[in-house]
Amino acid sequence: MSVLVLGGTGFIGGPLVARLLADGVETVVVHHGRRAVSAGARSLVLDRGDTAAVLAAVREIGATTVIDLLAYTAADTLPLLDALVGQVERYVMASSIDVYANYEGLHRKGRPSPIWDRLTEDGALRASRHPYRLAKPRPASDPQAWMDDYDKIPLEEAARAAAGLEATILRLPMVFGPGDRQRRFSWAIRPMVQGRARFNITHPWAAWRATFGYVDDVAAGIALAAVHPRAGGQTYNLGRANTPTNLAWAATFAEHLGWPGEVELVHPDVARGALAAAVAGLDLSYPLFIDNAKIRRRLGFSEVTDFDEALARTVADELGR
Questions:
Q1: Cα dihedral 16, 21, 25, 27 in deg (nearest 10)
Q2: pLDDT at 270
Q3: Beta strand 166-172 with 174-176: parallel, antiparallel or unpaired?
Q4: 3-state secondary structure of 48
Q5: pLDDT tens profile 301-316
Q6: pLDDT digits (tens, 9 = 90+) for 193-237
């Protein structure tokens, strides 16, 4: 088996390639040449958007599977899907839990009914499209202009509909760990390592729950789904099995760091700081609590990283910024 990875040098791509190699999978990485490729993987520097070049690479190496970590818009993905039909056996797409209706409710878009149970792979999806599109389109010169056309839902649909191409969809959770540009736990780590006696978070944010996954564990799940014979044609949620509240996450980091301080719960109207501003527009009655039992049951997935080690690496990365 030979696997071609599109985006194999990024936040998730690096650990994914390392996991594939550790599992003895022949791995080829398509990338722009700005980052090093894991030792043992073959490097191909080309533009993922150059469909003809990607297809030529697939034929040259005889790839049986393509893992696409960079499927963001219809314009950059549909031509690739068309080209891969009949050329590879399996196409693995990294999708997101932002496809679910609760994400729409969280961002106050549309009028979805709250879904209180864990969201399974057949749960209700967003009725609206392009979740990050701005009212005023981003200029073409903006590096984030592509976000106006981002949407995983139509890409999932197109992958499943591609005749003769076995599609596997992985809906990724909130991914944390070294290289996380969103710094998902900075709000807890920073005040603790600064030795502050207390810091505050709002009541709704403290009680909110979303499914997280440590980057190496998420990478291991993608690698497993890429090679497992039962994974073809399936959609899987990824993430940790337990989904604690944000307050519980704060307690976890406090215990890990030996922080003796206090997390104070305050009303949103009196909350201050970057975190309060970031969550002010959200409807936190909508959790992103994702059921990921299917990949564990069908494929035997389990985390590959000790949880304390994941915390330590996350803290070290935050402090190194």
A1: 70
A2: 86
A3: unpaired
A4: coil
A5: 999 999 999 999 999 9
A6: 999 999 999 999 999 999 999 999 999 999 999 999 999 999 999
Distance CA 136, CA 76 (A): 22
Kindly report the average pLDDT of the chain as a whole number.
Answer: 95
Report d(CA 21, CA 24) in Å as an integer.
Answer: 5
Distance CA 290, CA 209 (A): 10
Structure-block tokens of residue 6: 């599109």
Tokens of 45: 């520097």
Of the candidates 262, 268, 239, the one whose C-alpha atom is nearest the C-alpha of residue 250 is: 262
Cα 295 to Cα 311: distance, rounded to the nearest angstrom: 23
Backbone torsions φ then ψ of 113, nearest 5 degrees:
-75, 140
Phi-psi category of 244—alpha, beta or left, where left has phi over 0 and alpha has psi -120 to 50? beta
Pairing label, strands 26-31, 198-202: unpaired
Contact by Cβ (8 Å): 196, 250: no
pLDDT tens profile 280-290: 889 999 999 99
Task: Give CA angle at 25 (20, 26), nearest 5°.
Answer: 115
Count of residues for the chain?
321
Q: 127, 53 in Cβ contact below 8 A?
A: no
The angle that helices 74-84 and 51-61 make with each other, rounded to 10 degrees, is 30
Contact partners, residue 305, CB within 8 Å, separation at least 6: 214, 216, 217
The pLDDT of residue 113 is above 80? no
% of the chain with per-residue pLDDT over 90: 90
Separation between Cα atoms, residue 112 and residue 102, nearest integer Å:
7
